[in-house]
């Protein structure tokens, strides 16, 4: 806990007490299996060890894998080093291709209720999931991981929670979970 207390980002006082928001330097990687990602990130960069563990040593090995899996969905991923390591699906002047995100039809079937959607909507739903997973991974890589400690008016800790990804505390749910009034 002491390491987290050294990383105070923001203090919010309200009628019930105070909420302290901290940078969480020990946040888990959102690519860990506990997160139930539907995609795999395959990056073959020689010096950057990013994405998911995989068995591919060369682009040709990955291409062969894709050929053996009809219906595989691929999304190219690019990397920029301008402001830390930032991943994107957009090719820009200052970035280079790092690899791909992919999902087989079996992996895509893990998306809740996808089997109840019209098949023509599946690709868009999978793309949205890819983008969501990439955004969470980007935030993790940039160190935008947070938690909070809530205290009553006397300074007693009444709750805490960690694992919020992204620095928009309304969007990631931290404000809601901390009981911060609108």
Helix-strand string: HEEEHEEEHHEEH
Q: What is the percent of helical residues?
A: 10-25%
Mean pLDDT: 90
**N-to-C span:** 28 Å
Uncertain stretches: none
What would you call the shape?
Answer: elongated
Tally of discrete structural domains: 2
Main-sheet strand order equals 1-2-7-8
Task: Describe the SSE topology.
Layout: H1 2-5, E1 8-14, E2 17-23, E3 40-43, H2 59-67, E4 73-80, E5 86-88, E6 96-103, H3 105-108, H4 122-142, E7 145-152, E8 157-165, H5 174-178
Antiparallel strand pairs: 1-2, 2-7, 3-6, 4-5, 4-6, 7-8
Protein model, in words:
- This protein is of the alpha+beta class and 182 residues long.
- The protein has 2 domains: 2-27 and 144-178, no CATH class; 36-142, no CATH class.
- The chain has 5 helices and 8 strands; from the N terminus they run αβββαβββααββα.
- The protein has helices at residues 2-5, 59-67, 105-108, 122-142, 174-178, and strands at 8-14, 17-23, 40-43, 73-80, 86-88, 96-103, 145-152, 157-165.
- A 4-stranded antiparallel β-sheet has the order 1-2-7-8. Strands 3-6-4-5 form a 4-stranded antiparallel β-sheet.
């Amino acid at each position: 806990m002491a390491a987290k207390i050294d990383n105070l980002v923001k203090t919010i006082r309200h009628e019930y007490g105070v909420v302290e928001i901290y940078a969480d330097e020990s946040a888990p990687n959102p690519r860990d299996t506990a997160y139930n990602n539907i995609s795999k990130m395959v990056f073959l960069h020689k010096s950057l060890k990013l994405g998911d563990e995989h068995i591919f040593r060369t682009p040709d090995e990955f291409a062969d894998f894709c050929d053996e899996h009809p219906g595989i969905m691929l999304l190219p991923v690019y990397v920029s080093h301008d402001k830390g390591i930032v991943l994107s699906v957009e090719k820009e002047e200052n970035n280079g291709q790092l690899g791909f995100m992919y999902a087989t039809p079996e992996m895509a079937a893990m998306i809740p209720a996808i089997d109840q959607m019209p098949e023509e909507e599946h690709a868009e739903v999978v793309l949205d999931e890819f983008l969501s997973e990439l955004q969470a991974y980007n935030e993790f890589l940039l160190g935008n991981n947070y938690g909070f400690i809530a205290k009553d008016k006397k300074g007693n800790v009444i709750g805490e929670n960690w694992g919020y990804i992204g620095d928009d505390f309304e969007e990631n749910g931290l404000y809601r979970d901390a009981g911060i009034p609108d």
